[in-house]
Amino acid sequence: MRVACIGGGPGGVFFATLLRQLAPEHEIVVFERNRPDNTFGFGVVFSDATLSNLGDADPVLTERLGEQGQSWEQIEVRAKGEVLRCGGNGMAAIARRQLLDLLYRRAAEVGVVLRFQKNIVQLSDLQGFDLVVGSDGANSMVRNVLSKSFGPAIHQASAKFIWFGTTYRFRGLTFLFENSPYGVFAVHGYPIDENTGTFIVETDEETWAAAGMDRFDVAQPPGPSDIGSKEYLESVFSQQIEGCNLLVNNSRWASFRTVRNRAWHSGNVVLLGDSAHTAHFSVGSGTKMAMEDGAALAFALSRPGMELEEALDQYEKQRRPSVEGIQGSAAPSLSWWENFGSYYRVMEPAQFAYHFFTRAISGDRVRRRDAEFVNEVARWWERKHGADPLHSPMELSGGLSGMTAVSRLVLVREISAGLAEAEFLTEQGRQTLLLESSESPASRSNDVALISIPSSFSGYESARGRLDQVLRRKPALVGISGGTVLERALLSERARLSANVPSLVIEDELDIDAALTTVLSGRADFVGGRKGPAFTEASQWPTEP
């Protein structure tokens, strides 16, 4: 079989190398439009688990990666003059150019044909190949040509990011946050060799424009970098990086695009890596997913007696659940980066860091990684509130003035659509409030409101619009139900952080760890649910007399 790979990135080259090892009778050609020493970007990050998986596929390559890479176990957050660290996050990084050099040398060793400075602009250029692998990135020509077959769906985020290197020496994955006259900027930084680090800056679109970062023409061909943004950001982060320089390599602002496809293969053409799917780089997954795709595709194609169509089906069926799981985790992480400025402005460093670490995983999982970090945040909370998060008193105001809740867990009973009872434990005993939807014909009170997020395509947007209307009348409490966990959290934060209105997030099934995480992270003031073991065992909610 003759196999053509369009794109000489890590996923395509890793696939070609593995297939050549597993089935040396195949002729495999990689077409790369750039020179072998011409690569954009700075570093690539792998988790320990990913390195282990790649090692199972090609031990020689991962041994070489281990020799040249940088590794760490802690992630560091620097915010408002404080430094917080969370361990249990084994990772390693390597310069992208080093990684590609290792991959190219390994591919050549096993007999893969590498054709550099060969730009494939149409699939008809590859007549005579039995299989075409589109490993040509997020802007894939292959996907675009066969878009009717692949069915791509692309969503562009609102946040802006720009990729630099730096001469500052990071000790591991580090997140820096700085206020500017225009808004908040953040950095994802990590070492890639003894003298260089990756330095990715993110901010919201409003801050980006106000700071004049929109002056550079990003439509010009790849190559030139945004020097104005480089110099400004060097000044913003000068103290945190001790006056070190930023390095450019096609450094220009962009907005992340999440790519999904209805199908990953059509006829004798298959997509791999970013051409098939993307996930926000804050979960460190782009190169990982591409190389794991490459391994799965190579193993599927090397199975004896399997027809091409069957092999491509198996590849997609094996990889799609894992990829969709990562994209599912990346969605709340991307949302966090679209909103981090609002969190940074109002939260103290301990809560801000905990909010960050629990953006895509549970509080229990963070505790398993580093119990002392979670304990440190819990101690901060108790110093501030005088009790643990779920039993901290909260005095309400407005129409609920004089009511002091002594538990952050609330028993919720649905009466009808748009109408529910919420039973609080207060200093005066049990107190029941009526939660009414803003659209409920029975609505009689401005003190307490209920926002239900419909499950329709535009449900979240319509609920956000209703919430904004409700917040104008300054209710004493707003309850949020329906939608997804992320959607409920976003509306809850909109109420309590932007309008200073206490919020109650209503869950279908109350989970104590999730409730603790929600309150400790500042995503909501109260968490509600139905009667069950959570109210009688873990929450200290009194049993019925």
Describe the structure.
The chain is of the alpha/beta class and 545 residues long. Helices cover 37% and strands 25% of the residues. The protein contains 17 helices and 27 strands. The strands form 6 sheets. Strands 6-5-12-13-14-11-15 form a 7-stranded mixed β-sheet. Helix 14 (459-471) links the parallel strand 24 and strand 25 (477-482). It is globular and about 80 Å long. The mean pLDDT is 92.
**Overall pLDDT metric:** 92
Find the count of extended strands (DSSP E, 2+ residues). Answer: 27
How many helices in DSSP terms? 17
State the separation between the terminal residues, measured CA to CA: 76 Å
What key phrases describe this protein's structure?
545 residues; 17 helices; globular; alpha/beta
Short description:
The chain has 545 residues and is α/β, with parallel strands linked by helices.
Layout of helices and strands, plus pairs?
Elements: E1 2-6, H1 10-22, E2 27-32, E3 43-47, H2 48-57, H3 59-68, E4 70-72, E5 75-79, E6 82-86, E7 91-95, H4 96-109, E8 113-116, E9 131-134, H5 141-145, H6 147-150, E10 152-156, E11 160-166, E12 174-180, E13 183-191, E14 197-203, H7 205-210, H8 227-236, E15 246-247, E16 257-261, E17 265-266, E18 269-271, H9 286-301, H10 308-346, H11 349-357, H12 363-369, H13 371-385, E19 394-395, E20 404-405, E21 409-416, E22 419-426, E23 429-436, E24 448-453, H14 459-471, E25 477-482, H15 485-498, E26 503-506, H16 512-520, E27 526-529, H17 533-538
Parallel strand pairs: 1-2, 1-9, 2-8, 5-12, 9-18, 21-27, 24-25, 25-26, 26-27
Antiparallel strand pairs: 3-7, 4-7, 5-6, 10-16, 11-14, 11-15, 12-13, 13-14, 17-18, 19-20, 21-22, 22-23
